[in-house]
Amino acid sequence: MLKIEKLFVFATLVIILLIAAFNVVGSLSMIIIDKKEDIAVLKSMGATTALIKRIFVAESLMISMFGALVVARYFYGYFGSVAYGASYCTIYCTQYSQRT
Fold it and tell me: What is the C-alpha to C-alpha distance for residues 54 and 76, in angstroms, rounded to an integer?
């Protein structure tokens, strides 16, 4: 039973990561479409195709890292509060049961 549960958790996480990956690809595609004029200006100033690719890769890394930090912050905040609530309940219930 535990193996099936682990399999479903793994499958859910894979689906979430796939959706996130498609979201990043979609965002980058929209950025490139939006920045066609800027790319033309960079090329006219002498920028190579490799430099322009590096610029977009750096931008995608910044977007991904910012998203990861935001998710990690909310993830920690949610589970930190759950853990605090559980420990508070355990301490309070133990003290209450010792009084009676």
Answer: 32
As a whole number of angstroms, the distance between CA 83 and CA 48 comes to: 52
Q: CB of 24 within 8 A of CB of 60?
A: yes
Q: What is the pLDDT along the chain (100 residues), one digit of tens a residue?
A: 778 888 888 888 889 888 988 887 888 788 888 889 989 999 999 999 999 989 888 988 888 888 788 877 777 666 655 555 555 555 555 555 555 5
Q: How far is CA 40 from CA 45, 47, 48, 51, in A?
A: 9, 9, 11, 13
Q: Under 8 Å CB-to-CB from 56, ≥6 apart: which residues? A: 28, 31, 32
Token pair, residue 5, equals: 């549960």
